[in-house]
Amino acid sequence: MTGITELSESELRELRSSVRDFLEAKSSEEAVRKVIETDLGYDPEVWSQMAEQLRLPGLIIPEEYGGDGFGQVALGAVLEETGRALLCSPFFATVVLGAQALLASGDEEACAAYLPGIADGTTTAALAVSERTGAWDPVQIETRALRRGEGDAGWELTGTKSFVIDGVSADLLLVIARTTAGPSLFAVDRGAAGLTAEPLETLDGTRRMARVRLGGTPARLVGTDGAGGRLMARILDLAVTGLAAEQTGGAELCLESATAYARTRVQFGRQIGSFQAVKHKCADMLVQLELARASAREAAVIADKGDETAFAVAASAAHVCCSRAYMFAAAENIQVHGGIGFTWEHPAHLYFRRAKSSQLLFGGPHAYHERFLERLGF
Amino acid sequence: MAHDTHADAGDLASFTAEVRAFLDAHAPGGTAREDKAGTFVWGKGDDRMAYFSSDPPEEEQRKLEEARAWQRTRYENGFGWITGPAQYGGRDLTPVHDMVYNAIEAEYDVPDTGVLSVVGLGMIGPTILAHARDEIKDRWLPAMYRGEAIACQLFSEPEAGSDLASVRTRAVRDGDAWVLSGQKVWTSVAHHSRLGLALTRTNPDAPKHKGITAFLVDMTLPGVEVRPLRQMTGGADFNEVFLNEVRVPDDHRLGEVDGGWTVALTTLMNERATVGGDNGGPAAAALTPERLYAVLRASWTLDDRAVRAQAAELLADVMATEHLNTRALRGMRAGVTPGPEMSVAKLMYAQNLTCAAHLVTDVFGPRAIADSGEWGTYAWSELLLATPALRILGGTEEIMKNILAERVLGLPKEPGIDTRSPFRELRRSGTGEGAA
Lengths: 378, 436
Ligand SMILES: Cc1cc2nc3c(=O)[nH]c(=O)nc-3n(C[C@H](O)[C@H](O)[C@H](O)COP(=O)(O)OP(=O)(O)OC[C@H]3O[C@@H](n4cnc5c(N)ncnc54)[C@H](O)[C@@H]3O)c2cc1C
Fold this sequence. Notes:
The complex is a heterodimer of chains A (about 375) and B (about 425).
Chain A (H helix, E strand, L loop, with lengths): L8 H18 L2 H8 L7 H9 L19 H13 L6 H15 L2 H12 L5 E4 L15 E4 L7 E11 L6 E8 L2 E8 L5 E5 L9 E14 L5 H37 L1 E2 L2 E2 L4 H30 L2 H30 L10 H13 L4 H11 L3
Parallel strand pairs in A: 1-4
Antiparallel strand pairs in A: 2-3, 3-7, 4-5, 5-7, 6-7, 8-9
Helix pairs in contact in A: 1-4, 4-7, 4-8, 5-6, 5-7, 7-8, 7-9, 7-10, 8-9, 9-10, 9-11
Chain B lengths: L8 H18 L30 H20 L18 H11 L8 H18 L2 H12 L5 E4 L15 E5 L2 E12 L6 E7 L10 E7 L5 E6 L8 E12 L3 E2 L5 H17 L12 H10 L6 H29 L7 H24 L15 H11 L6 H12 L28
Parallel strand pairs in B: 1-4
Antiparallel strand pairs in B: 2-3, 3-7, 4-5, 5-8, 6-7
The structure holds flavin-adenine dinucleotide (FAD).
Keywords (chain A): FAD, Flavoprotein, Oxidoreductase
Organism (chain A): Actinomadura physcomitrii
Protein name (chain A): Acyl-CoA dehydrogenase
């Protein structure tokens, strides 16, 4: 991708603070708790405000498709904020996964068909890749695509996809299915025949997942037939870079919450933050956060420079660092809070759930270790 | 120093060209290597990865002379003290120029000047510049940056380590001189040093931070006795220094009488910057993916799942630590004062090397505990033995975490640390008694 509009440091700061202000108003803890209980899993009102007031769905979509054409650095700044606020929103599935999958496919016709709707917030998307085991491995793709008619639109998909983020609510499903040429990317409309989606119970209520069944469902080929394996790798690099930013934001909030409590809670006649066991926990969280932030932000910088090899390494390294940092910060935040941190009413568990679900989202530690090592030539 | 950290891009580009021209012409090992890390080949070259020297004396002496000669060449070509004032042989440039120079020089084969630069030029020089009288600066700074006068840091004592403000070495005024008596310990490079920056107690009746005075001690004066201390690696890079009624002229005092703590803070600030930015040195080779890959292959652990997981976590941390340094440097170029990045980088440098040394020795097993003669195996034991020091020197891991928690996160200070009572009433190790 070329032609990225770069943001200056001050524009970037401005973007961060306007997103933070918006989320403080729209994604308070109370709002998050409320929306978690709904069937949809997000507040459609907030989603349309994100589109209309902040133009966020179009952030990284090129101008020719109705977006603003920014890059990974800008996207990362937004995702650090949505991660901090535990925003429940189609943003991750629609933009980080869906829009970037379309762009990565290089299919101009498909981009022209779908991206303008995504950019203006009227279309939400989901990316259906993993199946039974949840792995992002081209070899494990069993869903089949058969050609039934002429042209890109003449395909039918059959199979079952699992762990599909926002798979129930999305208007557009982007599905990896196997043709005789290998794994390939397809687009399926929500109303298509033979398509059903059932919600899965999730550890983390802020991120909805679904099982999606396709039974002879009409689909349109996106990009080149058989190019899905390579595409999956590219999309995953972008996805984990976005995720790393979210994780950084979440870890940052956990650290702030722990230190704020450590400054005010008094036991044995002193603030618990003056006990070194507590103080050092917080310092360890800070170290983890600094590593996470540096690795996430630098991966985005490298992506925007267009150095694909270096980006693949940096993205997979950020995936390792940020997954660890967030999980560590979320767990230690509860420990610093003591009993109150273990209550349903305290937000700490929401972050704990989100940290674990983020860590395991694309396969978990074994998968991300191996991915990173593979990129280093191990 | 009233340096602006800002350096504009055009200026840096011409500086970079100038540095390359200088190194191409003068680096003893010739022109820049293609890619230092990329040239690593298992079984080729020196397999040592030492943090401390363990050379026999003649070899150590030879390396010292090489280091001095290289520093002199730098100095004569305007790269001996990039951030220093022109008046003392410096270039009046910014810390960013300094970092740029170091990054480029790392691509060349040049002598390691750590013995001069880490303590003397990196920490003591800036302290002299900030606090000494003009005659003293004139006399010593050019000599130091020309590679002639090596300087050491006479801070730690048997009773004052982390709690540095508890130094007990006495300095008593006698006419226009002071008489220093006491013992310093863990003093790196004292055995090569012409100068030492000593913290002394001049007023035991004041609270501990308020009765300290700093002196620049000529190590050739009568009464200065340096005794090497053998460290756990087997070599002797640090020393005990005994000061037996050493007469130091008052013009060699740095800062005010009883104002030595301010002087010490300048040194410590420079120490953190020096150690935090330390991603080079011979030990850095231990942290490259190429080297670790070769180790896993040579130890038949390339398909060991647990080992691979550890290697991935380690290498991700190494990369994140590099990113921290890159981002701090980029920020400085844009005029932003670095935040906690440097302190975090220092902690991580120690942790990464420690983690690497254990991972590698673990996979080599017996080949790491006995020298079988196989290239690149037993060599790691030398690095392993150095790693405990990295968590102690320049502020222990625990002290660094206190600093991060208190200064960055705003957590409350340790209660019960007495900064008010007169020094002589404070408790000391092994007794319940006062200090004086
Ligand atoms: C290789 C090497 C080179 C050195 N070179 C020099 C040099 O050139 N010049 C010089 O002056 N010094 C030098 N030092 C000394 C170094 O600065 C001290 O060793 C260090 O500051 C610790 O002091 P200490 O050894 O007295 O340990 P102590 O301060 O006695 O510490 C012992 C343990 O107690 C912990 N501890 C102490 N206080 C606290 C606290 N408040 N909170 C939590 N934990 C605490 C420490 O973290 C440590 O784990 C060097 C040390 C080494 C290892």
